[in-house]
Structures are given as C-alpha cells and as structure tokens.
Amino acid sequence: MASSRKVIELFYDVVSPYSWLGFEVMCRYRNVWNIDLKLRPAFLGGIMQGSGNKPPGLVPNKFLYMTTDLHRLAQYFQVPISPPADPFEAMFEKGSLSAMRFVVAVQEREVGGDKQVEQVSRELWMRIWSQDKDITQPASLSEAAMKAGLSASEVEELLKLSTSKEIKDKLKRSTQEALDHRAFGFPLAVCHVNGKAEVFFGSDRFELIAHYIGEKWMGPQPAAAKL
Ligand SMILES: N[C@@H](CCC(=O)N[C@@H](CS)C(=O)NCC(=O)O)C(=O)O
Questions:
Q1: What is the pTM of this model?
Q2: Which of 51, 76, 88, 186 to mutate to test the pocket of ligand 1 (most atoms within 8 A of CB)?
Q3: Strand, coil or helix: what is 195?
Q4: Most buried of 21, 70, 159, 196, CB within 10 angstroms?
C-alpha cells in the first residue's frame, strides 16, 4: 500500500546559516507533520557555480542586512547563530568542501536512520556559525563527530572514507540533483506530493510548504506551540 506520508528532501550545506535555520525547523517538524524527511547534504559552492549565482554576502549592503537579519532570526528560531569574526574567511576562503564530504561519509555508513547525519551536521554548524571554530581540518571534523556521539574508531574510518572517490562523487551527485531542481542557493526543500516535486528556497517558506503539503504551520517551535 502506498504511504500517505509526503517526502520532503532538504538540501543543505553547513556553510550556510540560513540552511541551519531550515534544518532545525524541519527536524522539529519531522515528527509533527506526516512527512518523511530526507536529509540531503550537498555543496553550496557547486550550486553557486552550477547556477551562475553569487553568494549574497558579497554585496556589501546585503551582507550588512544579513548580519542583522541572522541576529533577529537566531532569537526567533531559537538557534544559537553567532557569526564568525571573519565570515569571508570562514565562508569563502576556508569553505565547507571537506566538511560536506565528511557528512556524506557519515550518511553512507549510517544504517537504520539519519540520527548521526543530523547530529554531526548540527555540531558542524555549531562550530562555524556559533563558536567561530574551524570545520576544514580532520581534527575539527573528528571533534564534531565525537561530540555527536561517534567513537574514535568510527571517526577514523569516516575521515578516510570522506576523501574517497566514492564519497566525492556522491556529494557531486547530490549537488547536481539540487541543480536539476533548479537550485541557486540553500536551503532547498523539495516536497514530493502526488508524484510532483515542488521546490522551495529559503528558511522563510515554511508557511507555504505547510499549505502545499496540507499540514499546519505552528511557528518555528512546534513543541512549544502545542503546549
Ligand atoms: N530568504 C532566505 C535567504 C536564504 C539565503 O540567503 N541563503 C544563502 C545561503 S546562506 C543562499 O544560498 N543565497 C542565494 C541567493 O540568495 O541567491 C531565507 O530566509 O532563508
């Protein structure tokens, strides 16, 4: 029998603070809405290149606006975003390629769910977008994964796997899939309803997503709203 649950794929990259907001909201709603949430770690740098877009932070006024916007959103969404001291270095010089390959490796090895992918992604966001810490070095990835509950031997294996061709290709494929959905930025939610994929960009489209999938939007903290 076909499931009545709607599938939502969430494409994200931990370099993107707006993805963090979208990610936390979707994780909060995954047990509230009748949905199957599929986490889709991908590479925002590849999306920018493949779509011919430019990061919005490169336009000075947008950068200033986003700094204020993220401060307000952090409080509204209750996600501890605090921009790194040098966002340009963190986002554009250091970037997230090794981190996203690592997340894909975690996903490749995880069986029976995506708790580890969820927790490792969150720990990486905590590092770059809350604690102003590195996410490019093996030691940084290792620290994030251990905080997420993985063992030292698991982390060692995942670090090795994350530099393999298999994982590099998998990240490329996921990024290409997002581009095939006409992505130009993240977060990107692809909602599959009645055999059709509807695409939503941004962490500010949840009301519309709820309407589209026939669920109720109760704000960014559904657990608190239900009390
Ligand atoms: N309005 C969206 C903005 C999301 C956003 O700016 N995402 C960045 C990455 S952090 C991006 O990919 N932007 C591409 C663009 O704005 O063209 C939201 O509130 O979530």
A1: 0.97
A2: 186
A3: coil
A4: 21
